[in-house]
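Database export, one record per block. Field names are fixed; values are copied verbatim from the stored entry.
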Amino acid sequence: MTYCIYHIPGKKIGVTNNLEDRVTRQQGYTEDEYEILDWSDDISYISHREIELQKMFGYPVDRQLYKDLKYKNTELNSMNINITEQTTTFPCPVNKLKGRLMDEIGMSWDTEHGKCCIDPDSIRWIMDNVKTSMYNGERCYVYNKAFARYFDNNGCCSYEDVDCNRTRTGALNMSGHGYTPDRFDLIRDWANERGLYDKGDTKTQYLKLMEEAGELGRAILKNDQDEFVDAIGDMVVVLTNLARLGDTSIEHCIDQAYNVISKRTGKMVNGTFVKDTL
């Protein structure tokens, strides 16, 4: 079998043994949009060469060698998930997804943003963030970037069995010792346990956001630092839940906003950044 290292300029460097399926069908790139950097029948060589080229070109480096992936993207398994640049789509409706995922514990795959895998904890994340396909009610999906970020904070498990130990790689806790789960996931867990997603809606959360914004304004006027911090934290909590109720995630909203502002130019005027106009 021949393995190719492909390069999508400005996007990524990856490995595949089926360019048409992996790059054209799954990711939507035509032949003139990518190039082949290297190829070999030696999977060990190609796996290490991929990492070397990712570093050389300045792209994010895969956390696991291609040869060590339990499932390759072109040979996933009977679940037959579909991976694109933006999403991972599961071939079943949401109400049947959890059972299907439980049958696939240990399965892993590579995305544009890093490796993802199925274990009891990631199943919980999937079920909290999955969305029904707007084109086919019998299919559902998650956003790859948000899913990969979950593993950045919690680690990705290579299962020998369900009870293996997982190394967590999240942010340091407030004391500087040990690690904590992603704070947005904690907020969603808290809200879900209290029925906010079952009984709440975007309108009530918007009103709550305006209430917290008023608290922030009063804290600024009173120069009350404690209230200032508390109000900002409360607004982040409300925004996290508002995004979830609006069928998206706070992470996705932040990423979308940053993608826009990162390209803006302008200048400070009277304490406010004013963007350049065309």
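Remark 1: The radius of gyration is 22 Å.
Remark 2: The first helix runs from residue 19 to 26.
End of record.
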